[in-house]
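Q: Hi! First time doing this. I have a protein sequence and I read that you can turn it into a structure. Is that right? Here it is:
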Amino acid sequence: MSSNPLRHALSRMGGRDPHEKHRTATPLELFFDLTFVIAFGVAGSQFAHAVADAHFGAGLLGFSFAMFAVIWAWINFTWFASAYDTDDWVFRVVTMIQMVGVLILAMGIEPMFHSIVEGDHVNNVAILIGYIIMRVALIFQWLRAARQDPERRETCLRYAKYLAIVQVGWVIALVIETDVLTTFLLAAPLFVLEMATPYFAERKIRTPWHAHHIAERYGLLAIIALGECLIGAIETLRAIVATHSWSMDAALVGLSGTGLAFAMWWIYFILPSGPALHVQRHRSWVFGYGHMPVFAAIAATGAGLHVAAYFIDHETHIPAAAAVASIAIPVILFKASLTTLHCIMLGPDRDLIWSSALVVLGLASSIALAAAGASVPICMLAMMLVLGLSIAYDERRGHKGRAAALRRLESAAG
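A: Yes, that's right. Below is the predicted 3D structure, encoded as structure tokens:
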């Protein structure tokens, strides 16, 4: 970075110190994340509309495609910036171009969903243009790093080369008009190639990313995604107040919707990501990729809360059990994904596994409650209580196991 924080003259992109003290997210990174607030919001809203209209398969396909594009682009920028953020004017301008790409991608999410629901062909023009813009900007960043960081030149060039090859595939997918099935058959191998790129690019020399910085950045995106849950909770509360004025149901929805989002925030930050990643840099692949279902599950939970609002407003074509399931299933995925990540990063934890299994059972029971005739607000309250009990159990016993696991890892690392 520039030695003068008041000026953003060109700086050599030679790689940041992976052990730099007090490394935190920059204002530019926080600003960059705001574009993903929009992308998460649009994707969640469209998913909620599809589920409310009983288009479950089409909604899930569209949401999965959008989430991969959004989350994967964010992950790539974040790891690059952790290793090579110079904060000079070139880095800032190229980041702005990536932000433009995110906004274009977000604009393309709604027409993509509509085209999948209609089942004719997939209108993925805007979403792919936005994605390609982001990736081409990142290719430029890798080429710049290759030129200015001789030690890791080969790694940076491999990144640029592999990214460019995959973008050719996305351009082909952009210009070919196909039906839904063919589109996703074309996209599947491109998804695989995208995710394989970091592994093959860094197989010899690794980039100098900062463990605590990465952990902070992932935590910030989790908070952004949780914001969609809070919006969904407010929408559900608004629907009840508009239909029945203030009532006990309104109070239950306000409490349980906010409580669900707060509990998911609490559960996410139970894992000491920074210290665990710092002493296990070889776990970066699991940490980075393992968060994709976590982020998608959080966003889907927000969409489920929107579905609950539509159900209460009598704007859905689904039963109460399906409305509750649209919240419970993403929370189950969230809890299962985090538990798996926790066990990989810190080692198997029997107490955590058992408590997670009980959480999954409790959340599934809320769907059965709705099928048996319980109201949506009561089922939401039940879900919140299940998560709250798991947090209370962890506060009493879980912290000891994590502390011991961290001590073992630090001792093994020397």
